[in-house]
């Protein structure tokens, strides 16, 4: 299921990249990337995932975790210019502990 979700996510994100890719020479393969609002909409529509948390790295990259009620999840990294790349995806997400149960709060 997780691999199938990864493939589907890659295909959805890839639609935004296909035209420029055909016009250029092949580059090294990396994670599927596209404009952030497009990726978030695809996660919502295709998997029912909503963002439940985010964190900003020192480099300016925004990491976001999207989770569905069924437990699928996707981790995105978004650059300061708004390009989001799929970092990981899976299933069987466990909810976060209560805020007073960890030191960050």
Could you characterize what this model shows?
There is one protein chain. Residues 11-23 have low confidence and may be disordered. Helices cover 30% and strands 29% of the residues. It has a five-stranded antiparallel beta sheet. Strand 4 (73-78) and strand 5 (83-90) form a beta hairpin. It is globular, with a radius of gyration of 15 Å. It is built from three helices and five strands; from the N terminus they run ααβαββββ. The protein has helices spanning 2-14, 18-23, 36-47; strands at residues 33-35, 50-56, 62-67, 73-78, 83-90. With 105 residues, the chain is α+β, with helices and mostly antiparallel strands. The protein has one domain (2-18, 33-93).
What's the β-strand tally?
5
Classify the secondary structure makeup into a structural class: alpha+beta
Over all CA atoms, what is the radius of gyration? 15 Å
Strand content: 25-35%
Stretches where pLDDT is under 50 for at least 5 consecutive residues are 11-23
Number of helices: 3
Total number of distinct structural domains: 1
What is the succession of H and E elements?
HHEHEEEE
Fraction of residues in helix: 25-40%
Distance between the ends: 34 Å
Quaternary state reads: single chain
Strand order of the largest sheet: 1-5-4-3-2
On the 0 to 100 scale, the average pLDDT is 78
**Principal-axes shape call:** globular
* Sheet with most strands: 5 strands, antiparallel
